[in-house]
Amino acid sequence: MKIPKLNLNKEKLIKFGFILASILISGIIIYFRNSFVKLEGYGYLGIFLISILGNSTVIIPAPVILTAFVGGSIFNPFLVGIITAMGATIGELTGFMAGFGGQAIVSKNKNYERIEGWMKKSGFLTIFILAIIPNPLFDLAGIISGITKYPLKKFLLATLLGKSIKFLIVAFIGANSF
Fold first, then answer.
1. Where exactly are the structural domains of the chain?
2. Which among 36, 41, 86, 45 has a CA at the least distance from the CA of 63?
3. Is this model's pTM higher than 0.85 or not?
């Protein structure tokens, strides 16, 4: 009996690596989540790191909004909002990577082509609006962006702009609450 050879090319292996990396990052963050809370004592750097880590989990939400709220009550709320948004934007790369890696296992069908066309037509606005709204489903925007090969620079810019608005509002609310 002959064992069939696996027909995996280099591109598919790289994409699979992106999926695996996204899953591993999420798992590590969830496992060590109690240790990351200690980062708050490091001021702006701590807020930045918590924001990266909190947004690196795919699908499972982390309370980064609370970090911006409390940080805004302690530090300069403008800086807290911007720093939190920058960290959150970097953290969202795991969703994008998972989607990009998912191309290797997603079959192209009518739904895929519809989503791909929709992202190409209004992807920036969609990502921007979803980044403003506090919701745990933003990871889906990153995943779909990666699957549809939405340009990474545009994804990052739309995410940063939307999250900046959200976290500036939250940080200023925090500043005015205490």
1. 10-177
2. 36
3. no
